[in-house]
Amino acid sequence: MSIDSLLQDFPELSKEAVENAVAESLHEMLNRTCENAHSIHEEDRKVQAEMSGQAYKPLLAEGASTLEYVPMQVFKDNIGTNGLDADKWRATIQAFATDKFEAYVSSLPDPAAAKPIAEAVERFKASLSSGVSALAGSDPLVVISDRMANRNLDGVSSSGDGETLPEPILALSKLASTVKDDVSLQGIILVPLAAILIPLIGTTAYLELVTLSSSRHGHWFRTVLQSDQAAFDAAVRDLKDRIDKETADLEKKDKDNRELRDKQRRKRDERKRKKDKKRKDDEEKAKRKDNCFGSVVAIVPLEGTSGDPRGYAIRIEAVKENLLGDDEVLQKLKKITVADNIVPTVGATIYCLEIYCHQVPSGVKAGVWVNLELNLKDATPATHEPVIPAEGDFKDGLCWVEVTSPYASFVKGSLSNFGKVDHGYKVTVDMSKIKLDIAKTALDKLRILFERYNPIRQTITNFLRLSGVIQKSSLSLDQYKTADHFVMANVGQGAAGWIGSMAQGWGIVSDYGFGKGDRDFTSMIDDLLYKTRNMPVILSHWDRDHYRIADSGRAKLVRGTDMCPTLRHWVVPDQPLTAKAYELACSIHADGLIECCTADEYGPAGGNWRILRCQSTDWDDKNNCGALALVIGLNSDDRPLLYPGDANYEYIHNINQLNGKLCYVIATHHGSEASLKVKYGGLGSSIPQSDPHAINPAVYFSFGKGNSYGHSVEKVLKLYKDHGYKTPYATAGLASDKDVLIACIGPNMQNMLPNARLIPGVPADVAVYHDMDSYFSFMEERFKASGITPQARQASSTPPVVADIITLDGNNKDALEPYAVRDEFQQVVKYRVLARKLIINNCPLFVKCESDAPIQVLLQCEDIELHASAGASPSAPESIPVVLFDVKSGDPWEGYADVAGDVMVGNEGYMGGFLDLRVVGNWLVRIADKDVYKSGEIEQQGLHLQVQYQGGRGGDGEKGARGGVGTNGSNGTNDECVVDSYFDPWSATTSYSYSVKAGAQATPGGNGGQGGQGGKGGSPSVFPVSQVMATQSKVPKQPQSGSSDPSFTVTLALLSFGAQGNGGPGGDGGRGGHGGVQGQRWKAKDKFFDPGFEELKDQSFKSAGDGSPGPQGFQGQAFEGPLPKYDDFQPKVVICATEEETHERFMEEEFI
């Protein structure tokens, strides 16, 4: 063995490290041997003391520490030179011992005392060279035991006679005798014994010299051959490295698994958070379903007949609070622009309220937003009588409500708001719940959607006035030059009339409103829509009682026809718009037929009438700021009439020029005192004086029967009389609801109008009554003869809200993506397709459902075509699949449960979607290029639709935790090879015995633990019930029991859908523990024939055996809860009696 061979065995170590390890080993071995020799020497001294009868005194005082015999530095200094060469080491140790003795001799102060010691040292040095040869060929163990057993050292002569010891030992004994018991030499006296032991260095074992026992009858010595500790340590290290690596690998695997589980748990928790938020939002919406946000339009004082104030009417335009949480509305908020694509606000229900109270709540004023509760559950129709009486007290909170809802026009492709019913409803509003506390975020949204002064809202007027996109359209007034009469219709507490010319055969509507709740206006509105068709409209201001006919419930039925109010030219004031006014303005603007009047005076060149713009600078005062008044009859032989709308007279442009020139005046604001109050003058001081030469100058009042605002007509009438208007007329006094009041403007007009009914005491050339039917019958002929054509519609760049034709393809998985509506989490919650005609090829449409928000597939159209290459299934070949909802199953749990944690239950399947199909008109179903059903034709197989679902399986439970790792076994220890020798002094013979002292046995590894049980399975998906709406005349009858007639059915088909989640697999059994490493194993050979030891290599350094892996854990249980009863999820069919009813319900916001 050499240093180089050690380096080859341990390539990972440096030469320096190997040399240091060898030096330490040699140092330990030699010093231990010297220590054992010292013990033998002390035993000799003790025996000699006993034999001589002298007291025994140890060289080393009791409790003193043993000095180091050969310092470590000697080995470190010489390892590089000596390596493992025994001869070199022997020389090194001999030199070290000699130097020690010589140094000792030199230290003695008495030369006489030092002389014999110096001679002994020289004799010792001379004998060293002969010591090796004397020992050659001898068993070192025998030499040591035999020679050291000879205790009679003091009697040995140095002359050579009778000497029994080899020279080195004799020299040592003489030296010991010379120095006697000098304790200072105890660290070097026995060192020369190493000269005898050095030849053993480099063998596989070294000797441990131990004194077993000693007496005067004999001496026993035991020599233990040390086993290969280095090989054992290497095996232990290998096992430890393997265990450490496996432990590290398992810890990393568990760490990665925990990170994966944390990620999956976060995803699960995020999903739950979204579900909880939606649930809470839905609960909150349900609680607050009656809460509204409203913009205060105006506050109108109420007056008694005596003129005394009796309270207020608060006008509010409101929307449901929940509207601001509607995902489609929120998405539209992001798309509203102020450029050339101004679109109607939201297509939502708007509630127009007039709340009556004695005191206005604190802080409530025109232009502010309030919240309030509006419960229509107990609403009653507001017909035949005013909401509050004209006289007497009333209850605070009485309210008139007009409900206007979205209505889709298939003719124009527009979406506008119209009244659901024209009479409105009576309800009671809790005044104490009218508050100003609206969250800023909600207020910001409201301002964007509806605010009267928001820049987006203001741009509508700028757009109408300045935009070149609509090619600014102006009414050609040249064909409307000379007006000869003015007509006032009996529309209650509102204003509707027109200026006309019997001579020229034309008419222009002057305001187009009607009052609230005085009576049923249905017939009146129908007549006005029809009989004023194609007439242009001049709007005095944007109050609903002046334009309500245009967006009434009856007006929506004539959308797209020549009776449609928005297909006429409108001249409107330049004013801020409320939500309702904005909807109407946008509808008119869509055809380029709206003109914003910004000129102070506007009219036909050479004509006898003018539009006069009001000059108030108060932007809040829409009665006066920018409002439009009319003066008619400017020719010299006319009887001039002034129609101020609701304006104060003093704000009308150049009103002073009309002073003393008027024959008629329409009482402003339906006869209210409010518009007669002059800022720097007395009440009514701004009323222009009548023409002092006029015959029967008159004032006309337009208000409803009962005068719901309680205007003090008597008091106001006196003010008008004081200004020369002697005769009053009122629409409320007309005999019939369809009567009209006609003021004669031009000369000889009464001779042209047949069947006029005279007003008692009034000349026929001043004013007459007339029924509407006969009047328009007469005017129809005049209109036709005039040759005046309606204003041409202008091209618009605004895309239609309702598309003409939309085609979808079921083969395109993303066909519905352009129509997606997303929530705050960017999850699709709705696909909305709105078209006149909807064509779906390659049915079914594919809808991916990957969230817990139910996706509504809302398909709204007038006509529909469904095409499929095959029927829904072989068993239902006549059915056509409309939609296939591909519902995501519960997310799988990857990895396994934590050893100390709970195992996860399978995730539930995601929410499925639902079909909401609304068709007003015709159906066409074609399967495999064959018409299966077509509305209006003979029914062959009926109309059968199918809504399909796939996926939606509950997620499997999580895999169980892994079993625990078995306990690692303990390591054994090496066997010890023992040689016992006995020296018998009487026979002078030594006997030997060989034995093996068994080392500790290694123990096997423990078995791994059982894996944990898997998690329970998750619940399958569910989905809302689908619905299909159709018109009765367009589809077959629904199936009747016992009937085989063709029918209309909508069925549910589950295609491998809704399976429960399985239990998760059991966890893996734990790894068995590693067995400990056995020590080096020996057996003693036959002491007579083959004395010595033999290594049992098949056992040495082997594993005691690894433990068995633990058993697999048990599989978890499948989903245990009640499974959904999918039979209860069959689609609903809604059949409306008429197309009008279907169209009315077509845009309902709530799911039917």
UniProtKB/TrEMBL annotation:
Region named Disordered: 254-286, 949-974, 1001-1023, 1059-1079
Compositional bias per record (Basic residues), positions renumbered to this chain: 263-278
Superkingdom field: Eukaryota
Gly residues bias (residue ranges): 1005-1018, 1060-1078
Protein name, entry field: Uncharacterized protein
Source organism per UniProt: Gymnopilus dilepis
Lineage: Eukaryota, Fungi, Dikarya, Basidiomycota, Agaricomycotina
